[in-house]
């Protein structure tokens, strides 16, 4: 009976571990290229001038006309909060894009997070600004949003941070260094990370073919749990080509993932741009790898113990049955005397 309880406990343990892994897998989406399909239509919405490019697996975000804007939205709500206290969870999103122009001008792209209750048709609204976030200030004044817009040009790079209600939020402007121009249609990758424990959001870049890992970057503070107090959010990308009449922006891939926060010792993130150390980058990668290895070892150990106990249980049953089938020696002697 005790062995049966032990087997049941280990089975439930393995089931819970498997369920946790499955939940993590279901908490992300990944598009390595885009193809027109019923699944794509259910998950992704295109607004403004954005459209799928035939036979190229790309989304063209803007047209080659002045003040063109295009937006991509992942339609399924994302739950960023857990537990009774509705604490926020860490996440990361990756996307790669390119521009087909070599002119001196701005390549403007923004990552946007809004409450899932927001009417998605607002992403199709146009405005008179050259910003990728102008539609929020004009049509979503009373909504609580988090948005990061960055502009890349030969004259310098800039970023705009919008946290809170667009009508009353203080928009933070900053600049960051680095040659991020996408000459000859080369792609640029962007990774945006949110660390729930340190309540910081970090933005990193990497040019195609570069050995540098998402460098340079900038970061800012934001408490998502306090900002939204639970609930679900919708994420999207917005692009604008400003006053240039010959720029078309293309989205190549997009990924979003809910992940476990790293240990507290890894949260020495600089408050200003370009102060990150290589040791921190290496530590982040090692911690993520260690976490995955530890999870795999625990799962393997639990399954191994379950298999060993099950084998021992079956061997014990077979041994008992075999001993019952053999006639004891004393009984055999008594039968001979009779």
TrEMBL record:
Give start-end of the signal peptide.
1-22
What UniProt keywords apply to this chain's record, in alphabetical order?
Lectin, Membrane, Signal, Transmembrane, Transmembrane helix
Q: Entry's InterPro entries?
A: ConA-like_dom_sf, Legume_lectin_dom, Leguminous_Lectin
Name assigned to this protein: Legume lectin domain-containing protein
The source's domain of life comes to Eukaryota
Originating organism: Arabidopsis thaliana (Mouse-ear cress)
Span-the-membrane segments of this chain are 293-315
Annotated Pfam families: Lectin_legB
Q: Which family does it belong to?
A: Belongs to the leguminous lectin family.
Instruction: Describe the location of the Legume lectin domain by residue ranges.
Output: 29-262
Q: Name one GO molecular function term.
A: carbohydrate binding
């Amino acid at each position: 009976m005790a062995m049966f309880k032990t087997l049941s406990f280990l089975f439930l343990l393995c089931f819970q571990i498997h369920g946790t892994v499955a939940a993590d897998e279901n908490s992300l989406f990944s598009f390595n290229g885009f193809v027109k399909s019923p699944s794509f239509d259910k998950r992704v919405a295109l607004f403004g001038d954005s459209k799928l490019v035939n036979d190229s697996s790309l989304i063209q975000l803007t047209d080659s006309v002045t003040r063109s804007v295009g937006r991509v939205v992942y339609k399924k709500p994302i739950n960023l909060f857990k537990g009774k206290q509705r604490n926020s969870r860490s996440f990361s999103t990756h996307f790669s894009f390119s521009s087909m122009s070599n002119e001196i001008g701005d390549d403007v792209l923004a990552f946007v997070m809004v409450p899932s209750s927001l009417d998605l048709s607002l992403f199709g609204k146009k405005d008179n600004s050259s910003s990728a976030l102008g539609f929020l200030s004009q049509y979503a004044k009373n909504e609580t949003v988090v948005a990061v817009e960055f502009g890349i040009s030969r004259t310098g790079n800039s970023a705009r941070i919008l946290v809170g209600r667009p009508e009353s939020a203080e928009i933070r402007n900053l600049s960051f260094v680095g040659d991020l121009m996408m000459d000859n249609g080369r792609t640029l990758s962007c990774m945006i990370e949110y660390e729930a424990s340190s309540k910081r959001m970090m933005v990193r870049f990497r040019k195609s073919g570069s050995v540098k890992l998402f460098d340079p970057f900038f970061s800012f503070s934001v408490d998502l749990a306090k900002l939204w107090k639970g609930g679900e959010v919708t994420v999207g990308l917005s692009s604008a080509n400003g006053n240039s009449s010959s720029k078309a922006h293309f989205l190549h891939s997009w990924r979003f993932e809910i992940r476990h926060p790293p240990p507290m010792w890894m949260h020495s993130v600089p408050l200003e741009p370009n102060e990150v150390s290589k040791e921190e980058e290496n530590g982040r990668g090692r911690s993520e790898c260690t976490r995955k290895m530890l999870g795999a070892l625990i799962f393997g150990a639990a399954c191994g113990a379950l298999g060993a106990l099950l084998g021992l249980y079956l061997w014990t049953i077979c041994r008992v049955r075999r001993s019952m089938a053999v006639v004891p020696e004393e009984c055999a002697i008594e039968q001979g005397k009779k």
